[in-house]
Design a protein that fits this description.
The protein is of the alpha/beta class. It has one domain: Alpha-Beta Barrel (TIM Barrel). The chain has helices spanning about 35-45, 55-60, 65-75, 90-100, 105-110, 115-125, 155-165, 190-195, 210-220, 230-235, 240-245, and strands spanning about 5-15, 15-20, 25-30, 50-55, 80-85, 100-105, 130, 135, 140-145, 170-175, 200-205, 225-230. The strands form two sheets. An eight-stranded parallel β-barrel has the order 1-4-5-6-7-10-11-12, surrounded by seven helices. Strand 11 (about 200-205), helix 9 and strand 12 form a beta-alpha-beta unit. The protein is globular and about 40 Å long. The model has no long low-confidence stretch (mean pLDDT about 90).
């Protein structure tokens, strides 16, 4: 089995499978698939993991997908990495109780990094994924917006990623926001930089995947996995093709 993990992604807003362009809620594409049916299809294709995002909660707080998560765990063999709206330990506990294998923490990891570091120590490095989603500013620094990417942030990706690595973080999901949903290819320069600087992290590439060659490129850059969203939904390639391409020879 390949040690490079594919994470088919399902973003849910208002109960529907959707995709946003560059995190902009005003630029949404809706898809016909029911989230559970789509996840089941991914499981049937051979997926091991699912990346499930509650877009409503990412903006307003209060994770709403616990019933869906519970059904996913009961009806499919998928491991689920999920997040959106995690504001405190009660939210974290609720997601674990609903069956989350890993909880994704984004805005809170930027705003209250010490608190999230404590959760890594308490729950273990395999139960949490920190999402540090970045935009490059005019001075070339990677800044970390928060609140579902709707608010600008002043913290820098390099600094915070290194701080989390120092307290035992294992799984880091990093999205180049400007490439999210754009089918323009992953930012390989960014991922090569992160993976070389912090080799102890299992970096998940996210944003821009458009072709099977992007998977191999992300792997060559040092990433431990890649999140696949719009490319699958729009038929650029199938999950079966992606899994076959990443299978060991």
């Amino acid at each position: 089995m390949s040690d490079f993990e594919l994470y088919p992604a399902i973003d849910v807003r208002g109960g529907r499978v959707v995709r946003l362009l560059q995190g902009d809620y005003a630029r949404e594409t809706q898809y016909a698939q029911d989230p559970l049916a789509l996840a089941s299809a991914y499981a049937d294709a051979g997926a091991r993991w699912l990346h499930l995002v509650d877009l409503d909660a990412a903006r307003a707080g209060g994770y709403t997908l616990a019933p869906l998560l519970a059904r996913l765990k009961a009806e499919t063999p998928l491991k689920v990495q999920t997040g959106g709206g995690v504001r405190g330990e009660a939210d974290l506990e609720a997601l674990f109780a609903a069956g989350a294998d890993r909880v994704v923490v984004g805005s809170l990891a930027v705003r209250e990094s010490g608190r999230v570091a404590g959760w890594i120590a308490r729950y273990g490095a395999e139960r949490l994924t920190v999402a540090l989603d970045a935009r490059r500013d005019g001075e070339g620094r990677w800044r970390l917006p928060v609140q579902g990417w709707t608010e600008s942030g002043d913290k820098e990706l390099d600094v915070l990623a290194a701080a989390f690595a120092a307290v035992g973080l294992r799984h880091l999901l990093c999205t180049d926001i400007d490439r999210d949903g754009m089918l323009s290819g992953p930012n390989l320069v960014l991922y090569r930089h992160l993976c070389a600087r912090l080799p102890e992290l299992a970096v998940q590439a996210s944003g821009g995947a458009r072709a099977l060659s992007d998977l191999a490129a992300a792997r060559a850059a040092g990433c431990a996995g890649i999140v696949l969203g719009k490319a699958l939904l729009e038929g650029r390639f199938t999950l079966s093709e992606a899994l076959a391409a990443e299978a060991p020879c």
